[in-house]
Design goal:
single chain; about 240 residues; mainly alpha; Helix Hairpins; two-stranded antiparallel ribbon; two-stranded antiparallel sheet; 3 helices; rod-shaped; disordered N terminus
Amino acid sequence: MSVASGNKVLPTKIGLIQTRRSLRTSRTVYKILEDKREVLLKRLDEMINEAQKSRDDMWEPLSEAYRQLFDSYLRLGPAKLESVASSTPPTVDVNVNVRTIVSVSVPTMQITQKNVGLTYGFADTNASLDNATRMMRNVLPGILKAAEVENAIFRLATELEKTQRLLNALEYIIIPGYQDTIKFISATLEEREREEFVRLKHVKKVLERRKEEVGKVVEHSEKEEKATTTIENIPRKK
């Protein structure tokens, strides 16, 4: 009895047929996973380039926005900035949807900005805070885009790792296991056929020997019968 992929397989013709079918299925799955891996690698490469571009596009305006915010922080103080921030109503709506990339669910974000202008008074603020507010609003879609792409990269990389593990299991464990099982069953069946052939040959010889013995017995009986008949036919003297 052989073991393939953790299952015991009887060395029979049915077991051989089932194992061969499982081997064909495993090879088909391996080919599908190989194609999936190639697509994942291609999409990952594209998204890494896209993520780099998104970072480059937002880096300079975001840095400038933080410089303006830091300047207003120095001029107005943290208490004033916190007061302005707490009194500012929401001006941005973010809708989160899901799209599929190579059977991987990836969240997407769409931003909708309300055109409400600056929502705080100008008496106790300065131009640096105004500039920082406008720049932050302008750079926010880029930040969301970069976050979306980087999250997609992480999910695709995780799926690629799972796919590679499955490929390794098929290549180094499952497929070789089925191949070994097929060899084992084939060798066992061939050995049984040889044993059956030898047994039949031996039976044939025994039957031929018995046939010869029976023939000799019959022949001897016929001779005795003839001899008896001959003796009976000899005239007796009176």
